[in-house]
Amino acid sequence: MAKAGFFSTMAIAVLASLLGVDPARAEAEPACSAPDGLMRLESAIAHTAARVAEGRSLKIVALGSSSTVGVGATSPANSYPSRLEAALREQYPDMQIEVINRGVGGEDAREELARLDKSVLAERPDLVLWQVGTNAIVDEEGVSEEGHLVRKGLARLKAAGVDVILIDPQYSPSVIRRPNAGAMVRMLKTVAQAANVAVFRRFAIMSHWRTVEHVPFERFTVKDGLHMNDWGYQCIATLLANSIVAAVSQPMPVAGGSLVRQARL
């Protein structure tokens, strides 16, 4: 398998440690990897960076649907928010870090906006991870209407003074066979750029696993063809943690400047 980005042999050891599995078994798993270009958060998360620089507590709320809940994982502890919390605590052992899972299966932007105040802003988070768009693709909802709702949500979150990272849809059989999948992913990128909000490019990262690394879908998704399995959630969480660490520890690129170097877990 080709080696890409900054994850290869190191990721095997990290995954083995976090999952509590034998290293020999971990070596049989695909390498948790992604190219540097797909990992980079292209908008700053300045509030989060300030909290980390000061060594203060960090509260993150994960908003989303079933792939935030962790459907397909063998336990809630293997959802991506739980694994992200573990990865960030390893990186910042002297900080109090909490990742609160506010996923509700079957929801998309409209339902998530309806509970934004109670489920998210009431927690007074420093950073919100908003996983959105997958159910809109599966339900074949209009891309423009979804874009309108996402813009409203981003405006409300930014007005509350919190950092935001959008997490775009998963690349899985039930998603990519829908005709509006690509348009939904492109819309989220465009809306995020207009709002100066970062996007964690889950769709492109998982596509890289399948189309470049040639990892079979069954190695990172479950039989429903939609949700990730334990390995998929763990790898996404680990890569997201690295993207956050890089964003808070390195200056963002400026026009005409050089790109930041990614941090590692």
What labels would you give this structure?
Rossmann fold; 5-stranded parallel sheet; 48% helix; disordered N terminus; disordered C terminus
Tell me the number of strands.
5
- State the domain count: 1
- Class derived from helix and strand content: alpha/beta
End-to-end distance, in Å? 22 Å
CATH domain class = Alpha Beta
Q: Which percent range fits the helix content?
A: 40-55%
The number of helical segments is 14
Q: What value does the average pLDDT take?
A: 88
CATH topology tier name: Rossmann fold
Structure characterization notes:
By secondary structure, the chain is α/β, with parallel strands linked by helices. The protein has a single domain (41-248), classed as SGNH hydrolase (Rossmann fold), CATH 3.40.50.1110. It is built from 14 helices and 5 strands. A 5-stranded parallel beta sheet has the order 2-1-3-4-5, sandwiched between helices. It is globular. It starts with 8 loop residues before the first helix and ends in a 16-residue tail after the last helix.
What is shown here, in short?
It contains 14 helices and five strands.
Write the layout of secondary structure elements.
Blueprint: H1 9-19, H2 23-27, H3 36-39, H4 46-53, E1 58-64, H5 66-69, H6 80-91, E2 97-103, H7 109-114, H8 116-120, E3 127-131, H9 134-138, H10 143-159, E4 163-167, H11 173-176, H12 181-195, E5 198-200, H13 202-211, H14 230-249
Parallel strand pairs: 1-2, 1-3, 3-4, 4-5
Helix pairs in contact: 6-14, 10-12
